[in-house]
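#random but structural
TW: two for the price of one
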Amino acid sequence: MKVIYVVGLGPGDPKALTLRALSVLKHQRQIYVRTAQHPSLALLAKHRIKYKALDYFYRHGSSFEETYRNIAFFVINAALNFGKVVYAVPGSPLFAEKTVELILQKAPLAGVKCCVLPSVSFLEAISADLCLPREEKLQVVDALQEDKLLDYPEKHLLIMQVYNRQIASKVKLRLMELYPDEQLVKVIRKAGMAKGKKILELPLYELDRIPWIDHLTTVYVPPLTEYAMTDLLQVMRVLRSENGCPWDKEQDHQSLKPYLLEEAYEVIGAIDSGNAEELCEELGDLLLQVVFHSEIAAEEKKFSFFDVITAVTEKLIRRHPHVFADTVAKTSQEVLHSWQQIKKAEKKEQDSLFKLETYLPALLRAQKLQRQAASVGFDWPDITGAWGKLQEELKELKDAYKSGLAARIEEELGDVLFATVNVARFLQVDAEQALAAAVEKFYRRLRFVEAQAQREGTEMSAQTLSKLDEWWDLAKKKEKS
């Protein structure tokens, strides 16, 4: 039988090597180590155990991913040639070892059995040196997986594989997208070893200035925040539980509808205000509504919050093939066209791509329907056609007014509004927000005129129209000054 014995060399101290691992190393001839840059190899030299280091692949690989892949296939081929081989790696073989992961995946396909010998990992050594909390509050991340570095701000973060200052610089820049520049971090080298161990605390922005960073270096980042998404979900479960809040327990999807709408509009208000603190709070309130509805659905065994996350993540990946696949889309228009085609393919059972969403306000409904029509080519070539249509609808409204027919006037006024929304779309202006801003502006000026009348000890209704116009013009001037 062809076998690969996968052995862990421990975190660095030769004394951490297990007796079982040492026994296997003594009784096998074909021994490969991922890298010669590890202190535990001194014990192999002491016992005159010969081995071949695979650092060659690091020197000639164009990326770490390629290097790991080449090492894995080399070890598997060695097992096919020699029957039994040992592959030794730093730390524990089942802890953050990409080459081992690849070997365990691919070796069985080649008819090679894998026998893994557990060992002490670097995590135990570092946890002891830094007095870190239990595993549920601890997260280990590979420095080479930059996309994962910002995913766990609520946890104690251990960043391994910080091989050199170049990698440290990339880690620093990535972390500084979320963590403060002055965030204190700890850098530990040769964790768990009696000699040569170094621990240094310093601000994040100085991380890549340490001259002694090497392959035995790990970076520790303390939690940035106290709570995570799981905490919010747990709070909601408590509120809905038997001993929770009476009001929260009474709610259902229907009763929460007004609050969902209200919170959405409050987010828009916060955006318009430009107040970041207010926006942060209102986004939290809106997120709470999503969690609330998800918890109700979970209680009814329909879906959970995690189903919501899964569905929207899959949808984003599926509808962005120009990012996650091989499709090319260089402009926003090409993206929108692709999006509509994918939606159409997803909903083959529907007889139409278009949907009249009556629950939306009329302006939003008009905008969305016009965008859908434009996405399939039913649109004016440019804004000239939209301007002409608006002028045409205004003329028809005037004719309807002259006719005195109320139903016709209402219809033509609706056409004018619809044509106006179309012009707004060509101007890349959100009609709903534009109207909201106009209403707000009218309100401010009206309040100014009212205040002027009150200063004179009268009501607006007691003033002449010319006087009200005078104050109105004054309000406009003050806004422009």
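TW: number two ↓
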Amino acid sequence: MSQRLLKFGVVGGIGFIVDVASMTLLSLFLPVIPARAGAFWIAATATWWFNRRFTFEGTDTRAPVKQWGRFLLCASIGFVPNWGCYWILIEWVNNEWIMQLAGSYGLLLWSLIAMIPGVLLGMLANFTLANRWVFLPAPE
């Protein structure tokens, strides 16, 4: 299980990069909160694919659409602590220091920093659900 968790963490790191890149790109066209929500779905799909190929290789691959749907459902459950932590940091934490430090890029920089603890909380929930429900053992 520890090797699988490590692989899941590596894929999560890739997912984080996809998440940040997507959010940064989307925030050029949308406010940060909707950009964050859109980036989540892009990153969740990318991490499903990488987990399917790398972390949980050798598991049942017969129904990819069903598996993807289960993974997105689990990611949605993991999204609750992820989004909740992000929202609290964006809405309730005094971030004036970063606004002064980064100037016009302050809100974007703060929104990227605020993603980190939420992503970690969501990852723990996602691993547990993916390991027990999404990536089932291959049939004999």
